[in-house]
Each structure stands twice: as C-alpha cells, then as structure tokens.
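Supplementary Methods, section 5.1.

A reviewer requested that the exact input to the structure prediction be made available. We therefore reproduce it here, unchanged from the version used in the analyses.
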Amino acid sequence: MSLSPARHVVTALALLVVACATPQPLPIGRVIEQGQTGQPPESSIWAMRNAKTTYALRGSDFARLKRVGVSDEVLDYIQQSFIDDVDLLTRYWVLGESVGGCVRCLPTEVDLRNPASPSQIPTSTAYYFDRPQGMPSWYRPYSVRRGTITIEQVLRMAKSGASEGEMIRAIRNANLDHVVGVAGLGTIRTRPLPGLTGSELAYLGQQGVPDAVLDELQTAFLSQFVETERLRYQNLGKSPGGSFN
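The structure derived from this sequence is encoded token-by-token as follows.
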C-alpha cells in the first residue's frame, strides 16, 4: 500500500523534527579553537556535554591537544567521559545488550596527527565476540601478562634514554599498576575513575615520552580497564543478590 502525498509530507516532517532534536556531534576542532582563544575550560566541557559527544583519543592525542592550548581540565574531562562510555558499553556487552545501529551513542574516534585540520572517523557499530561494541580501531583485547609496570617506571625509562621499542615491549609484557579500579571494584558506579588521566598523558608527552609509547599506554589502559569491568559485572551479576539495577 502506497502512502498518499499528505502522509508523505507528515512523515518527512516527523523525520525532520527527530533530526533537529538530535544533537550533532561536536567537531574536535571546536575544542581546539576554544583552547587556542583562551576560553574557560567550562565552555568546552559544556559544549561537549550539550552535544553528547565523547571522543576516543589515542594517548598521543592528549599531548597534541595540550600543545595547542587545550587545558588540563578539558583533557581530563575527555578521558573521563570516554571511560564512562566504555564502562557502560562493557556492561551491555556482559548482559548481551547493545546500542544497535546508534552511531551517536558511541565514542567518536578522531585523527589528530595534524591538529590544524583534525578529522572525525565514523565509529563502527559492528559486533565482535572479544570486545564491547563501539571500541576504537586501535583497541586491542586484553591478554594475560606477567608482572606489573608503573607510569613512573615508563617515565624513568624515557629519561634514561630507553628506545621506543624497548618501552613498548615493557608495557605489552606487564600490567599497568594502579591505573584500573582505583576507586574500588565492589560496587556499580556511573563514573569509574581513570587512573591514567588525559592531563597525565599530556604531561608524559611534555617529559619526552614518545608518541608511540603514549599510544601504547592508552591502549594497554583501555584493554585492562575493559577486562576488569567485564569480570566485575560478570561476578556481580552471578553473586547472591547481585543486581545491575
């Protein structure tokens, strides 16, 4: 059965209203511009929150943003909001739920190798058995490792002249110490604290830690965070009286 012209108009208007009511993703260039012009951090944070935009940044991206004037408060908000989303997506993964084809419900991956002309990469809504929906392209699932390594040890390696490859191998072969579960693992939280903040990654870049090592730190942190949250939600769901509500 075909729709009448009048119904076509009503349908088109309804779709237009929905489209207008949906916040558009905030271009990362706006955040950079606000940092460069000295606007208060609250302006950028409000803009990201109002547009419901979350960015999935590599470790080196935080150093790049810092170099062009983005404040520590904004860097920390970007990392915190990203981790908030990943926490929720991990919970959905454990429960067998998803955001369907809602790209706007997932963190936005960006390319900041040239901050003067940044680009935002469409987020994949594909399903994979080994990761939550919406993980960035650089995500690597967790693998069992021996021993631990601290952020301070990574910084000391950089200052002592260790090679980029040596530092990356050290990170890949150990768990990052005290960067996941820093607020406790026993309760459901809406804002798990990231033990590796955006401003800390930017600081490491200022101290001479190479971009590739910063990227590896963020990748290791994210995979370790997802695995910890996966086990936590799984165990809470199975425990006597456990509830996700």
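The mean pLDDT is 87. These observations are discussed further in the main text.
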